[in-house]
Design brief:
Helix content: 55-70%
Shape: elongated
Largest sheet: none
Order of helices and strands: HHHHHHHHHHHHHHHHHH
Distance between the termini: 84 Å
Strand content: under 5%
């Protein structure tokens, strides 16, 4: 027999009272039931819960408040980033400060680039990129020497986001980073700047021991679009990794220099089907197959 007993539904005031429940799961449930109707009373109660002893409750409250960019929320996040002994609270604070994007947090974010926790430093670098203040460039330059590759990568990305043209010299240094993912990203971002002065550094990267870094170097040279790249790209048609050869063939087609025709014709005999297709497509741009 099916019961007709209706389930009780808590009122708004009852959910507000639940924010003080000793059970942290109940407090989170209250946050989720109140977050879509943040009137001044609820918002004030949420602000009070920014000091909740349970990090899961704290995180739920911050998620609910972040779109409002409340000054008290920003002050709380700044305080947590500077003073909390909890790694997760600190890195989440850095993350949310970046999402909110308030320049008031700049000083504490600069300090936190030296935090002992790599997740904090990573999220700080990301946050600085999102805030986009050019004052961040010098601190981020220093972060390019961080001991953790993920921090160095994020510093590169944030520098590029803030000022794509300025940091090329520092990105050149990152082409020699011990981590291949950092070297790869540096090559890609140098390519996006289309800085011909970086040509010699990119040529060296074409000899990198990591195939993905070499692919990134071909991408960067392609973006330069300068006649200097002709011979390095022809040489790259002999690279041991098929994707380097394929991308080099495609780049030669876009460059359009007749000196690439014979090397591309030779590449039609490549063992890899994708490379052969790239060479054929490149040769079609020279119109040598017209009757």
């Amino acid at each position: 027999m099916i019961s007709n007993k209706s389930q009780s539904v808590k009122s708004r005031d009852e959910w507000i009272n639940e924010l003080g429940n000793p059970d942290w799961k109940k407090r989170i449930e209250a946050v989720y039931n109140l977050k879509d109707n943040l009137d001044p009373k609820v918002k004030s109660k949420f602000i009070e819960k920014l000091d909740d002893e349970n990090e899961n409750v704290w995180l739920a409250v911050v998620n609910a408040l972040r779109n409002y960019k409340d000054p008290e929320l920003i002050d709380s996040l700044i305080s947590n980033l500077r003073n909390s002994s909890n790694d997760e609270v600190r890195w989440h604070s850095a993350y949310f400060l970046g999402e909110i994007g308030n320049s008031k947090a700049m000083d504490v974010l600069f300090e936190a680039l030296n935090d002992s926790c790599k997740e904090v430093r990573f999220n700080v670098a990301k946050a600085l990129g999102k805030i986009g203040d050019k004052k961040s460039i010098d601190p981020l330059m220093k972060a390019l020497k961080d001991e953790e590759p993920i921090v160095r990568k994020e510093a590169i990305s944030s520098i590029n986001r803030i000022s794509p043209k300025k940091p090329v010299d520092h990105l050149k240094n990152s082409l020699k980073d011990e981590d291949e993912s950092v070297r790869s990203l540096a090559a890609i971002l140098i390519g996006k700047t289309k800085t011909v002065d970086a040509f010699d550094d990119l040529i060296g990267t074409l000899n990198d021991k990591n195939s993905i870094v070499r692919v990134s170097a071909v991408y960067a040279l392609d973006k330069l679009g300068d006649e200097k790249i002709l011979q390095p790209l022809i040489d790259a048609l002999k690279d041991p990794y098929w994707e380097v050869r394929s991308d080099a063939a495609a780049a030669l087609g876009k460059l359009g220099n007749d000196k690439a025709v014979l090397p591309l014709l030779d590449t039609l005999n490549d063992e890899n089907n994708f490379v052969r297709k790239s060479a054929l497509k490149a040769l079609e741009k020279f119109s040598i197959f017209k009757k």
